[in-house]
Amino acid sequence: MHEDGETVSAQCAARLRSGRPHMSFTRAGEELGMTQTAVSYQIKLLEELLGEPLFLRRPRQVTLTDTGARLAPKVGEAFRALHEAVAGVRKSSEEMLNIHCTATFAARWLARHLGSFQLENPMIAVRLETSNAVIDFSRTEADLAIRWGRGDWPGLRRHFVMRGHFTPMLSPALAESIGGITKPEDLLKLRIIDPRDHWWQTWLAAAGLVDVDLADRQSSKLGVQAFEAAAAIAGHGVAILTPEFYADDVALGRLMQPFDILGDDGGHYWLVYPEARRNSPKIRAFREFLRKTVPTFDLEGQYPMSGA
């Protein structure tokens, strides 16, 4: 059918579900927000498709032909079925929030707070998918994502969540094994977990150690910050981590942060979703939850404020 005819058909659903079509092209046009001429044209297209007249045109009145009278209830049934199917899909879509998230943010922050989100929004179920990949929203079921990066993703609405700075952390027992950590150079006496991670060079430069070369260190790449933290807690070396994620481990004496020096390579955590979905109720609910839960969450701004 002609594209405009598809639009009219969708808009006519409410009327046809009742089984009582308008007997006036003008009244039909008023209900649909169209001109009488446009409605008449679409009916003409349908009649040409069927090869039969659906209405008898009389002055100031149209009436259904026998063909039109036979067609109307069947069309009404079809629109009822279509309406129910669309409503069912829409309801299911609004009941499930699909979140894509980096593995570390999911393990160290999101998993701890999702229970509170669902208590506040009992009608929304959550499905969580984790990876460090930058997903294409047109090729995935994800409704929104928590990404790490610089926030430069065209076509997406974005909100700053928290800074992605980093610093060396290790177990207190490992620090004691060399008599304590008093200056940044002391860290180099210990095994470095993933010495190829560019965060190390950024942090060492911030600490004044600009000429340190870690290239000859034994290489290990665990791939996920949460795994590196687990290795550090076990005393297997010094990991470079985002300290906000490990406050509980520090409080329990499993990790220590020997220096206040923080590295920053411009990457931070962001909430992102397609611009067209900004008014989705489930996305609004999650956005509001982050606003209330994360002190640094920036609802309106696009970039982190100094000191955030």
TrEMBL record:
<keyword id="KW-0804">Transcription</keyword>
<comment type="similarity">
    <text>Belongs to the LysR transcriptional regulatory family.</text>
</comment>
<dbReference type="InterPro" id="IPR036388">
    <property type="entry name" value="WH-like_DNA-bd_sf"/>
</dbReference>
<keyword id="KW-0238">DNA-binding</keyword>
<dbReference type="Pfam" id="PF00126">
    <property type="entry name" value="HTH_1"/>
</dbReference>
<feature type="domain" description="HTH lysR-type">
    <location>
        <begin position="24"/>
        <end position="65"/>
    </location>
</feature>
<protein>
    <submittedName>
        <fullName>LysR family transcriptional regulator</fullName>
    </submittedName>
</protein>
<dbReference type="GO" id="GO:0003700">
    <property type="term" value="F:DNA-binding transcription factor activity"/>
</dbReference>
<dbReference type="InterPro" id="IPR058163">
    <property type="entry name" value="LysR-type_TF_proteobact-type"/>
</dbReference>
<dbReference type="InterPro" id="IPR000847">
    <property type="entry name" value="LysR_HTH_N"/>
</dbReference>
<dbReference type="InterPro" id="IPR005119">
    <property type="entry name" value="LysR_subst-bd"/>
</dbReference>
<dbReference type="Pfam" id="PF03466">
    <property type="entry name" value="LysR_substrate"/>
</dbReference>
<dbReference type="GO" id="GO:0006351">
    <property type="term" value="P:DNA-templated transcription"/>
</dbReference>
<dbReference type="GO" id="GO:0043565">
    <property type="term" value="F:sequence-specific DNA binding"/>
</dbReference>
<dbReference type="InterPro" id="IPR036390">
    <property type="entry name" value="WH_DNA-bd_sf"/>
</dbReference>
<keyword id="KW-0805">Transcription regulation</keyword>
